[in-house]
TrEMBL record:
Species of origin: Fodinisporobacter ferrooxydans
Protein name (record): Acyl-CoA thioesterase
InterPro entries: 4-hydroxybenzoyl-CoA_TE (IPR050563), HotDog_dom_sf (IPR029069), YbgC/YbaW (IPR006684)
Keyword vocabulary terms for this entry: Hydrolase
Highest taxon above the source species: Bacteria
Amino acid sequence: MDVTLEIIVRSTEIDVNGHVNNAKYLEYLEWGREEWYEQNHLPYDRFIAMGIQTVTVNITINYRQECRQNDRLTIHTTPASLGNTSYVLKQVITNQRDEIVADALVTSVTMDLHTRKSRLVPQELAQLFPRTENRGSGNP
């Protein structure tokens, strides 16, 4: 399911160059992922009940154009791919003119709460991803 979150760029997110600081985009993406989990009925306490945590292990981001104070941004989050213990969410940030300002692929791993080791993505989360032939074949 594609989930969107709308935000407005605040003055505290602007750097000395007069646009959104690059690190803030990572925060916007995190807010978008949290919204994706919530909309899919997987809040943090649900993961705890399943005995897992999710850990971001890689973010590949492309900064397409600058954003300025008071821009209205929409963070789109969509499930992209699923491995055995990891999954990838595709995220796109657009502005009020529907222009892409940044896009990213975010890889997360499911980690057992007690052993602190990676473990199979639970079915409750896995079912949200497109079906692939690789799951269960030893691929991450």
